[in-house]
Amino acid sequence: MNVLVTGGTGYIGSHTVVELQQKGYDVFIVDNLCNSHLGVIDAIEAITGIKPHFSKIDLCNAASVKDFFVRNRIDAIVHFAALKAVGESVEQPLKYYHNNITSLINLCQYAGEFSVKDFIFSSSCAVYGEPDYVPVDEKHPVKKAQSPYGATKQICERILSDIAVTGALSTISLRYFNPSGAHPSVLIGELPLSEPNNLVPVITRTAAGKRKEMVVFGNDYDTPDGTCIRDYIHVKDIAVAHISALERLREKKNKERFEVFNLGTGRGYSVLEVISCFEKVTGKKLNYRIGTRREGDVSKVYSDNKLSNAVLNWKATEPLEQMLLSAWEWEQKI
Ligand code: UD1
Hints:
The chain has a domain at about 1-175 and about 235-265: NAD(P)-binding Rossmann-like Domain (Rossmann fold). About 40% of the residues lie in helices and about 15% in strands. The protein is built from 11 helices and 13 strands. Uridine-diphosphate-N-acetylglucosamine binds near residues 150 and 176.
């Protein structure tokens, strides 16, 4: 079975490609390499022994997307390709709306024309905005997103659910909490071209001396230690969930043509708790200071994962210590 993985050289994409290949799927990666490296293809091959097919395509270019579908027979799509920096999205909203939404529209357009029905969408807990309650479950209303990044995920989900009504596509949207860590092989991990702005790579880069210090964005939130709370989940656990979701669609076990599932551990950690856990497991002292809040951040979000546990028959297995250790091992390699 041929699976198109958009953004397959990116962080979550590359880990999912590995899991797909190990399950026997033939993977076709499409990526514009705007924030990832071509060398990831070789790293994937080093792990699985199989080189994925690769096409350098910008999904915002409709003609290139069409040409891809003309040349390749695709049975299902896992769509990761998107811009994902919350802070940057606040500064450059149009870049985010243009890229994340145009690429989805082009992909859906040609998936329809080429009769590809099964679609897994890479969504985010950002769709919940500042949640009314935690742990947040899938029944929680989609509230005004705190950032344009979050808004693009909401709009893409809306587009996919509208298409589902027509029967053209069946979608499972996976709402990730905070993916962290690296593959146990330490051959792939988070490797953006631009300076990373997610907490775990910022911590590891600071500890490795690649940054002088790190800033904790605010300690005046309504949380026990005043810093934001998030649900950090190992990227490999996230990747494995995509296989369950894909199998659910292939076996036509989905109850609706548009379904959503949270992918989180169900446990929240504050920024200071993550820092202290990192210091404990690695023995490294982190040079950090408390700064002001970052625009677009919500104070507290972690998952109720009962639905994905029960319906996808999936569970996150790796604890925070393991995520931080593998991220640290990876940092020392790159
Ligand atoms: C957001 C999305 C998440 C998405 C991710 C993609 C929300 C609630 N979550 O994650 O679904 O996968 O973007 O990028 O919108 N922090 C610092 N200093 C730093 C970096 C981060 O204090 O240098 C803090 C942030 O303020 C935040 C926490 O660490 O409280 C996590 O931040 P980050 O890793 O950037 O992820 P989110 O913004 O939570």
